[in-house]
Design brief:
about 110 residues; alpha+beta; two-stranded antiparallel sheet; about 50% helix; globular
């Protein structure tokens, strides 16, 4: 692995950890709600999106947009979920961007 790539991945992991730590500050429950919603979708073994996780969790803490991507990133890294394709998000704030479809890992 090139040094720049290794540094970039380390920065990404540090950012994920920081976002998750901030989401667990005393009055915040977004991380717990997102993790519970993700676990429920994984148990169903269906294909799902980040929008599905957000909806299942009840849209917690929408003012902190990095929490959900961090929860999903960590689950993918830990082998809990895997990519299952991509889709264009209908959420206006996503501007029609491509996003991943996810499913439970084998």
């Amino acid at each position: 692995m090139t040094t720049q790539l290794a540094l970039g991945l380390a920065d990404r992991d540090a950012g994920t950890s920081a976002a998750l730590a901030a989401a667990t500050a005393g009055h915040r429950d977004a991380r717990d709600r997102y993790e519970a919603a993700l676990a429920a979708l994984v148990r169903e073994a269906a294909v799902f999106t980040a929008d599905d996780v957000r909806r299942e969790a009840g849209h917690p803490d929408d003012d902190r947009p990095n929490v959900l991507p961090s929860v999903i990133s960590r689950a993918a890294r830990d082998g809990i979920i895997r990519e299952a394709g991509e889709y264009r998000s209908p959420r206006r704030s996503r501007h029609g961007s491509r996003n991943r479809l996810w499913t439970a890992a084998d």
